[in-house]
């Protein structure tokens, strides 16, 4: 099955709202232009946008039109509105947001996410057919591959194989090895100004490979759940491919997880 969350904008970044005829409603034109300004780095993740009044003056439109554009961006998770403070570009560096897309939970309801991560290897390699397809790359394109284990309650429970396109993220291998981040999304945001806003996942049950059985300390004939995930940036570009493998005896997939 394929699941999508927090869809990215469906309008391509365009010109300012008053630049000419368009079939789109005015608020959609404003939204498209605001997204374009985020993509070009005018406002980075975590930074505050100008007030609705200032934006309305800039675009020569009513404050209500600008407000509707920002409300739609907020509903898609592109910005967050904080009472008394303003509107901020979404960032994975606030609160629990580094792990907003993690859907796997322990039987006690706790999300399997956090800083308890063991990195097993970093290497530049050729993309597998699955990774290349997910990232929209030609076959055997160079990728940076990371293998790591997540622990919970003192035991390894998730095995993550992560691939990033080498040409898209120069120097990322050294940064991964030096920082060993719990959140790849946060590293991409801070180092490359890339904000992950959407994921697609395929979930399947299967029998484990020998390495998976060993690393997860699985008993013979224990099935695993595999989540294949592609992460997309604000511009709709696939920027990360990964598989997450776990035992099914104490871990479950929460499709409605949103925190």
Descriptive labels:
two-stranded antiparallel ribbon, elongated, Arc Repressor Mutant, subunit A, 11 strands, 259 residues, seven-stranded antiparallel beta sheet, Chorismate lyase, 2 domains, disordered N terminus, alpha+beta
**Mean of all residue-level pLDDT scores:** 84
Structural class: alpha+beta
Q: How many H/I helical runs?
A: 7
CATH superfamily of the largest domain: Chorismate lyase-like
Helix content: 25-40%
Can you tell me the CATH topology of the largest domain? Answer: Chorismate lyase
CATH class of the largest domain: Alpha Beta
Largest sheet: 7 strands, antiparallel
Name the helix and strand elements from N-terminus to C-terminus, one letter apiece. Answer: EHHHEEEEHEEHHEHEEE
Count of folded domains: 2
DSSP, total strands: 11
Question: What topology, given as strand order, has the largest sheet?
Answer: 1-8-9-10-7-6-5
Q: How far do the termini sit from each other?
A: 22 Å
Beta strand %: 25-35%
Q: Could you give a short description of this structure?
A:
25% of the residues lie in helices and 31% in strands. With 259 residues, the protein is an alpha+beta fold.
How would you portray this structure in words?
This protein folds into 2 domains: 7-89, Orthogonal Bundle (Arc Repressor Mutant, subunit A), CATH 1.10.10; 97-253, 3-Layer(aba) Sandwich (Chorismate lyase), CATH 3.40.1410. β9 (224-233) and β10 form a beta hairpin. It has helices at residues 26-39, 52-59, 63-75, 129-135, 172-179, 184-192, 210-215, and strands spanning 2-5, 79-82, 86-89, 104-106, 117-126, 142-152, 155-165, 196-206, 224-233, 238-247, 251-253. The two termini are 22 Å apart. It is built from 7 helices and 11 strands. It has a 7-stranded antiparallel β-sheet with strand order 1-8-9-10-7-6-5. It has a two-stranded antiparallel sheet with strand order 2-3. Mean pLDDT is 84; it is low at 1-19. It is α+β, with helices and mostly antiparallel strands and 259 residues long.
């Amino acid at each position: 099955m394929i699941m999508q969350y927090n869809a990215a904008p469906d309008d391509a970044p365009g010109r300012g709202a008053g630049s000419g005829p368009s079939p789109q409603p005015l608020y959609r034109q404003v939204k498209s232009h605001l997204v374009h300004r985020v993509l070009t780095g005018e406002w980075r993740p975590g930074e505050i946008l100008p007030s609705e009044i200032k934006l309305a003056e800039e675009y020569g439109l009513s404050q209500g039109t600008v407000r509707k554009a920002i409300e739609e961006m907020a509903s898609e998770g592109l910005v967050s509105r904080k009472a008394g403070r303003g509107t901020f570009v979404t960032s994975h560096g606030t609160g629990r947001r580094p792990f907003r897309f993690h859907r796997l939970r322990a039987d006690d309801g706790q999300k399997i996410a956090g800083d308890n991560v063991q990195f097993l290897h970093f290497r530049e390699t050729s993309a597998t057919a699955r990774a290349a397809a997910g990232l929209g790359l030609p076959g055997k394109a160079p990728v940076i591959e990371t293998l790591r284990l997540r622990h919970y309650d003192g035991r390894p429970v998730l095995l993550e194989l992560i691939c990033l396109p080498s040409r898209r993220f120069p120097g990322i291998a050294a940064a991964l090895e030096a920082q060993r981040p719990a959140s790849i999304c946060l590293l991409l945001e801070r180092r490359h100004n890339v904000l992950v806003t959407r994921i697609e996942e395929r979930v399947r049950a299967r029998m484990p490979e020998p390495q998976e059985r060993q690393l997860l300390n699985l008993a013979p004939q224990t099935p695993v759940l595999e989540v294949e995930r592609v992460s997309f940036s604000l511009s709709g570009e696939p920027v990360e491919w990964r598989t997450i493998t776990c035992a099914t005896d104490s871990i479950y997939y929460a499709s409605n997880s949103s925190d």
